[in-house]
Amino acid sequence: MRKPWRLLLLVAVGAVLIAAAAAYKYLWISLPEGTGPAGPAVALEPFEQVWTERPVLLLGIGDSVTAGFGVPRKHSYFERLAHNPDDEWPDIEGRCLSAALPNLTTRNLAISGSTSLHHVDIIEAQLEEQPPEVFGLVVMTSGGNDLIHDYGRRPPREGAMYGATFERAKPWIDNFERRLGEMLRAIEARFPGGCMIFLADIYDPTDGLGDAATAGLPDWPDGLKIHAAYNDIIHRYGETFATVHVVPMHAGFLGHGIHCTQSWQPHYRAEDPHYWYAWNLEDPNARGFDALRRLFLLEMVEQKGRIGVAVTGDE
User: Fold this and answer.
1) Among candidates 65, 96, 53, which has minimal Cα distance to 301?
2) How far apart are CA 78 and CA 71, in angstroms?
3) d(CA 56, CA 34)
4) Contact predicate 98/79, CB 8 Å
5) In Å, how far from its chain's centre is CA 98?
6) Of 148, 240, 139, nearest in space to 195 by CA
7) Are 210 and 155 in contact (CB under 8 A)?
8) What does the DSSP assignment read for 90-114?
9) How far apart are CA 18 and CA 277, in angstroms?
């Protein structure tokens, strides 16, 4: 018969191996999404006031993030901005634009899979000039698909830059800057009665590490540098256009990407160490859309005194 200590040793080693395997799975493989509300708190008090009696058009422009890819109807950030769904979380009930804007209408021109090259054409072809009594409240996500399309399956090109060197991408980055400026001016021109544009910057599912290979994608050494160049352009327009306000989607989602469980990472979120992205890595999941809606609302609350007021002049 084996000595008892040998049996105890085997049991202990087995327990250690099982614990190590479970820890490895949790820290490196699993992407827990969590449950319940996600994102920052939004105060109720601002939505108990009327911001303006003017007719307001909530207009969506952009890609699948604004189109609401992958979530049930009424649960995209765009839809939740306008109205709380029936199954809304108690902590955000009543915090929606229809509560503060009695003459709100909505229209969403966003298309899943579209890039900034498409958005220029969509604005030109589908956004007609609005009556002067209408104020535009525009929410926009543009540029993210320019970076990731094809995920390196084909050689990098404009509108699908994944895998490009920074030098190769530099002309495409410059074109994005020109193109985004054209879009913003065109939107302003379609709202002679005034508008405000809430433009989200571009989030990073790698949580600032740039290691897309960890998620099974091809390595992209210059990916973060190109991503930062796009976000710099977005933020510069937020500084130079009186109508443009940048929604910090990038900062808001850091720590909720593919390294969300790793407590040693610089952007780890101990209060909610969960994954806010969908299976495709490029769109929010249900909790991510909840969080994004809150980020937009907070920026709008900051500007609520100007909503309905015609603002002119840029750059």
Assistant:
1) 96
2) 12
3) 35
4) no
5) 22
6) 139
7) no
8) GGGTT-SHHHH-TTEEEEE---TT-
9) 29
Amino acid at 110: A
Each residue of 118-168: pLDDT tens digit? 999 999 999 999 999 999 999 999 999 999 988 888 999 999 999 999 999
The dihedral of CA 90, 67, 149, 125: what is its sign? negative
Of 99, 176, 109, the closest CA to residue 136 belongs to 109
Rounded-to-integer distance, Cα 64 and Cα 280, Å: 12
Q: How far apart are CA 116 and CA 238, in angstroms?
A: 17
Report H helices in 25-62. Answer: none
Confidence band, pLDDT 50/70/90 cuts, at residue 1: very low
What is the SS3 assignment for 223? Answer: helix
Helix (H), strand (E) at residue 168: helix 166-190
End-to-end CA distance of the chain: 86
Query: What's the CA gap between 185 and 175, in Å, rounded?
Result: 15
pTM of the model: 0.91
Query: Can you tell me the distance from the alpha carbon of 109 to that of 124, in angstroms, rounded to the nearest whole number?
Result: 12
DSSP 70: T
Coil, helix or strand at residue 186 = helix
At residue 4 the predicted structure's pLDDT band, cuts being 50, 70 and 90, is confident
Task: Output the pLDDT for position 152.
Answer: 84
Coil/strand/helix, residue 17:
helix
Give dist(CA 61, CA 95) in Å, integer.
Answer: 22
CA distances from residue 120 to 124, 156, 180 in whole angstroms, order as listed: 6, 21, 8
Give the model's pLDDT for residue 315.
47
Nearest residue to 286 via CA among 121, 129, 89, 104: 89
